[in-house]
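Technical annex B. To support the medicinal chemistry partners, we prepared a structural model of the target in complex with xanthosine-5'-monophosphate, based solely on the information shown next.
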Amino acid sequence: MQNNHRPEDMQRITTAALAEAFIDEQIKLLKEQIGGKKVLLALSGGVDSSVVAALLIKAVGKQLVCVHVNHGLLRKGEPEQVVRVFREELGANLIYVDAVDRFLDKLEGVADPEKKRKIIGAEFIRVFEEEARKLDDIEFLAQGTIYPDILESGPVKAHHNVGGLPDDLKFELVEPIKFLYKDEVRVVGKALGLPDGMVYRQPFPGPGLGVRCVGAITCDRLEALREADAIVREEIEKLDQTPWQYFCAIPDVKSTGIKDGKRYMGWVVVIRTVNTVDAVTATVPEIPFKTLCTIRDRIIASVPGVNRVAWDISEKPVSTIEWE
Ligand code: XMP
């Protein structure tokens, strides 16, 4: 039976010194648990799986096999960052799987949000399973489970873990951060030397841009979303204080634009900016009008197919944070 209760006397990890002590202890425990065997990890590039990867690299080096599945629904630059940080800088044994076409084929014509989520989750497991089957002698599966996942306190992370593998691939689990809260994971990530872009990354749903490319996903609308999202992030990150979550969505509607004296139909980018403590309720912080205008101008000038930019000022409840 796994122990799933955070020890009562466990100190909150709030400083670099406490993080160092945690890291040393975990390295010792990971070495004891894994010995000379191999361990597999689905590395999304989110802070939790990245911290687990960095801990395991320190503990067992090349015995760790990371699998990064690019399902085409990641943000601009994310797959490249995972490869750069883990393979090139940390020397990880990293398998990069380009599954973009596979996911987009499966999602073609599917407009129902829950069906989209199911397809993305199921396909992810299938791709990961295929990679796992190509490998010999894997005995352990590492996961970035954190304490709120165990407490099931919120809807923030539903697709992170690779549960659902078939019975013959039931590896022993390795979950070195399962008693940590998110803020502690970040302190540990910082102490492990991970880049700030990974450590302080805003929450990003497992189905990624899939739930922000509203309705049936098409390649061109998805690309427009990825480009617009990169602009929104870049401009919002120039502010002294960034909202808890900031991104954009593109609904599956077109509206009229005018160019060279001719009317034409284009997409609407919707900017979403929210503050929240637990993602159960959310408010919309003020964003300087100048920033909104810069975002609008950059998107209109550089993102093909978009001719309108809106700012969603709806609060939760009644509106959810994501658009679907
Ligand atoms: P909602 O849209 O329900 O989102 O207000 C609350 C928080 O959860 C994130 N979210 C998801 N995370 N898989 C995830 O891992 C999902 O399907 C999903 N849907 C929403 C959302 O980004 C927000 O932080």
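Notes passed to the chemistry partners:
The chain has a mean pLDDT of 95.
Strands lie at 38-42, 64-70, 93-98, 138-142, 172-174, 245-249, 254-259, 262-274, 306-312.
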